[in-house]
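Box 3.1 — From sequence to structure: Ribonucleoside-diphosphate reductase
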Amino acid sequence: MKSLSLKQIDSNQVTYYDLNNEINIPVDGQIPLKKDKEALEAFLQENVRPNMVTFPSLKKRFDYLVSHDYLESEFIEKYNFSFIENLYQFLDNAHFKFKTFMAAYKFYAQYALKTNDNTMYLENFVDRVAANALFFADGDEQTALSLADEIIHQRYQPATPSFLNAGRKRRGELVSCFLIQITDDMNSIGRGINSALQLSRIGGGVGITLSNLRGAGAPIKNIQGAASGVVPVMKLLEDSFSYSNQLGQRQGAGVVYLNVFHPDIISFLSAKKENADEKIRVKTLSLGILVPDKFYDLVRDDQDMYLFDPWGVERVYGVPFSYVDITKEYDNLVSDSRIPKKKIRARELETEISKLQQESGYPYIINIDTVNRSNPIDGKIIMSNLCSEILQVQKPSTVNNTQTYDKLGTDISCNLGSTNIVNLMASPDFGKSVETMVRALTFVTDNSDIDVVPSIQHGNKLAHTIGLGAMGLHAFLAKNKIYYGSKASLDFTNVYFMLLNYWTLKASNTIAKERHETFSGFEKSRYYDGSYFDKYLQTDFAPKTTEIKNIFKDIFIPSKADWEQLKKDVQKDGLYHQNRLAVAPNGSISYINDTTASLHPIINRIEERQERKIGKIYYPAPYLSNETLPYYQSAYDTDMRKVIDIYAEAQQHVDQGMSLTLFLRSTIPEGLYEWKDGHTDKMTTRDLSILRNYAYNKGIKTIYYIRTFTDDQTEVGANECESCVI
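Predicted structure (token representation):
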């Protein structure tokens, strides 16, 4: 075995940092991209190879890792070892190589298995891929080979918790994040805080809706006094996430959601302000708001809006506040004297939302009526997750005085993965690739058993949900010399996500047929009655532009007859998964995939990353060259309506949501937005309001962060959720 310790590497004795930093120094007006290749090779030569534990044979490697509690034995024992050797030969024949220094650095720093003292590497990329393929295939040799093929060619990227933990003996959960709801009683609040502690401990971000809680000043039954509202609960949750941080390995992360018609909405937003009193200020907790259509109507008409206390609403309607259709019932709520309410100006609240987004990037926006209109599942979606892409129905629980359940509802765990658009478009069989990905994600949902939070365990058992997404849209467009936001880019996005939808439906139907099992409630869904498929039978989603027709010329495009057959198959045998698609931010893992994050434009042609321990690392945009340079415009110099248009094309095919971030400069470039002509070039609350309304009118379900690049070269709202970045 090699003996040089990682701890012995002195940053002054290696060359790869300096070589990488030279990318940012133009030579004769050109970006010296070759320096990154030199940095990559230097990193492998100076860091990886000297610190890699080697073994005389593959068998001895696995024996060592199992006997020393690095890998589980159970998943390995499901295969003949001769098959594992064949799998490795298959992977070796793929001749995988990292393309950039950042990709290799990220993998070995954050994903590669290391010795207990953190001084030696125990696996390379091929080893991690093999562990994933063997683990998620669950003993099925053909699935293991197919999955190895998808991951080694980087067509598929499992979510960070899955990719990192697959096969490890000492590991966290395989799922990415969780969603729980709290109802309006102390037992539920206590159980919710305990759930937040437990879920933060085992990994992943936690989303919690507080919309059901009575507002500050509301009466409390049998007690002289009044409720304290949602802000003290927010403080309790923030402290819980801070305390439960996986023994200091990561910061616990959570988001709280509140309906804009909740009486505490102003104090909820104020808790995130920089100048908020320390007694109410939340520093690390993320905020999101649930926005019904009625709010947009009231803002448009410059009317007053009424805020309704949840305890009164629940008393009248018999269900928690989250489950009442505010838009439909608004006039009834206003006129009902049994429901306590107060009045504010709708546009004043709209301005407060924009001010906070300017200052902090929060709150996330969930257009909750848009979400539920397109929801094919029986029930109501009431919230989202830490990155705003998970949208699934929930049912409330009833918790008794012993903190156990009189009625066990359903909450949510997120089982995520992502396609790499550039590489999946080069797949020899697009449909087979997607089916393999769905089967890998199905293993995660089938084997997720979060017993510390029974409502999540119950929801996952009934729904079998997954969330397959995509990364690398800007990379694909630039590589093919297509401008982001152009007619061709919209055409491509539409067709790509139509294909993801089609093939995930096919795969889910196949699995349901194999297992003779569907998700719970399938018979009450729009899949069962067939109405879900109407748009595909009434509208042709095939490529429209010559450019995109050429790109898809060798890829199967389903006809209306194919959709009709799929409809019949689904009605006959069902779907295994209640939900299938969701587009996460996938920022961190996109570097390992040598591609651009999610569906967003790049931020910089040469991105500067501040790594905590070593300083700055520079990452050139994928496929960057003199030819692709014009197609790589920064998100901060891009009209955000183009980004919204791209996401809207994808959203029509995605059953859940997408983490849509808006990027703006504090000083808006001249000519970018026509409404700025003749007015200040500074970003204002009006700019954000216009863009939010544009997104709403385009059918966008959620808006994640607002990121602002300030005049002093800093970014506001640029926090990166490490649990959901895929």
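Summary of the box: The chain has 27 helices and 21 strands.
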